[in-house]
Amino acid sequence: MARTPRGPFLAVLVRWAAEHGFRRFIFCTGHLGDSVESFFLNPDKSISFCRDLGLTFAFSREDSPLGTGGALRQALPMLQSPAVLVLNGDSHCPMDPARLLRFHEERGGAASVVVVEPGERRDGGFVKVGAGERVLSFQERIPDPSCFLNAGIYVFGREALDRLPQGPSSLERDLFPSLLDRGVYACKAPERLWDIGTPERLSEFRRDWGVGDVR
User: Fold this and answer.
1) Residues 6 or more apart from 3 whose CB is under 8 A from it?
2) What pLDDT, in 10s, does the model give residues 85-128?
3) In terms of Cα–Cα distance, which of 71, 65, 74 is closest to 88?
4) CA atoms of 166 and 91, how far apart (whole Å)
5) Which candidate in 18, 110, 115, 145 could, as Cys together with 179 as Cys, close a disulfide (CB 3.0–4.6 Å)?
6) Model pTM greater than 0.85?
7) H helical segments located in 53-129
8) Structural domains of the chain in order of their starting residue, each with its CATH number
9) CA nearest neighbour of 27 among 35, 170, 149, 189
10) What is the CA 110 to chain-centroid distance, rounded?
11) 187 contacts 114 by C-beta, under 8 angstroms
């Protein structure tokens, strides 16, 4: 895997998406959002591949916490495509996003979510999947033997995002349940999910990827 230059974990996600053809990125930022903007917009700090590939960045800034759904709702005026790839900022599953986009188009649902085998994980968001890879429910931190782990990678059609309410909300608790009748599908990825949500998992990511200076 390619070496990620010194910088934030977000640089890992941006490089992964850029290597698969994505060129425009919208960051939903809150606490320390100015540090994110400084890194990606300042030529003295920005990583070289951003300039070499001609990547562009936009920033949707939260004045107060909006949750995952509220943050995305605020960013809707910035979207320029009928479907959008949404990533959590503290986890990474290095799958091929083209496969996910094909999966989403073939299923024709309102949204698609990447899931992985949970392994030993008993914390995180879990997804119950039924026949035809259709999502039946989302279960936060309540593991069920038949559930998969939510990898935090989604594709939404624009019409699905229009259902988001103004103000704070959660994708998992508010938006996804309202979309189940229209079809939310689980794209199962064989790749590992890397989560930096605890100091131990961040240390493991740094060690296994050889990126000791990623923060």
Assistant:
1) 210, 211
2) 999 999 999 999 999 999 999 999 999 999 999 887 778 889 99
3) 71
4) 26
5) 110
6) yes
7) 67-75, 97-107
8) 1-61 (no CATH), 82-195 (3.90.550.10)
9) 35
10) 17
11) yes
